[in-house]
Amino acid sequence: MKPESTDVRQTSIGFVAxxxxxxxxxxxxVTVSGPVFxxxxxxxxxxLAGRHLASKQLDGLTIRRTLPAxxxxxxxFAVEAxxxxxxxxxxxxxxxxxxxxxxxxxxxxxxxxxxxxxTYAARCSRRGRVRIENWxxxxxxxxxxxESRRSGKFKNESGNSILVLPDPxxxxxxxxxxxxxxxxxxxxxxxxxPVSEFxxxxxxRGGDPMRKIHWPASLKSGDLLVRETDPPRxxxxxxxxxxHSFCPPGELVTPxxxxxxxxxxxxxxxxxxxxxxxxxxxSLPRKETKLRHREDFDRxxxxxxxxxxxxxxxxxxxxxxxxxxxxxxxxFVVGDASRELWEGEVTPLFRVAxxxxxxxxxxGKRGTATPAxxxxxx
Length: 378
Hints:
This protein is α+β, with helices and mostly antiparallel strands. Helix content is 28%, strand content 26%.
């Protein structure tokens, strides 16, 4: 079926109607019965007229579709389609979109020169940049004797592509751990703000810095008074995420495992982004990057949607990440191969390494190293 063409096929009802017309015509001709022959002519004429109408009614239909910029794999989203008729009146038709979940609601009639909007649910099963340009319309009007189908391309000014991100997912144990991370995160820097609200005033003591003197209160009382502030809170931990495809020679990694760790990595990025925690992120063999703002996280999530697996078999690559994660106190190391194959290579390198594969997760023990100063997303 060529694009922008109408294909007409006879249904079983139309097939029966055709043979009934042929039967009446044959019987009328043999018996020289005018009424019988006339009935056959009427049925045959109706059959021919129906086929002609079915072949012409969908001409002139164009569709403009609105897609979201992003979605997640196997999640439903709403699509809005605008159908415009620049030809004959169209009747009782439905739209077939390759990404639609089932058929759209049937449109009973769309007269010439008019436009109608319909919505339907859609879903994309694979991640990446998905481009769907073709549509088809199907109708069984009139009488249900024929099925007419017309195809074409969506007329969108902004294109017909959508970026499908990995559907974020976290194992229950990892989700609980991250919830504890979120609750323990504090916006304090550990350094008291000299202009913050002080707790109380006290008399000046030897060794107090001059900048802590509260001059308005000192002038009123006649004694030197200094501000006493609350002590700084403990510094929270700084985090990092290392995504890799290390696999020793002779070991097999399924594509499903790679897709699963992308979902886990996406879940980690969303959790840290929503918690407002700055992290260091590296997807080997790419260089590390610091994610400070929401747009930084969103950029890496987009990259996950387009990521292709780049395996390596030399464990020394992990040594090259030491400088990248030097300031991090906890590292989430995510790999598509079984963690037993690489866990022993990464745990000695970092202060605390949480090792995650497609099926399991182990949490490293926190050391005694002094945590680095955190930075929160603005």
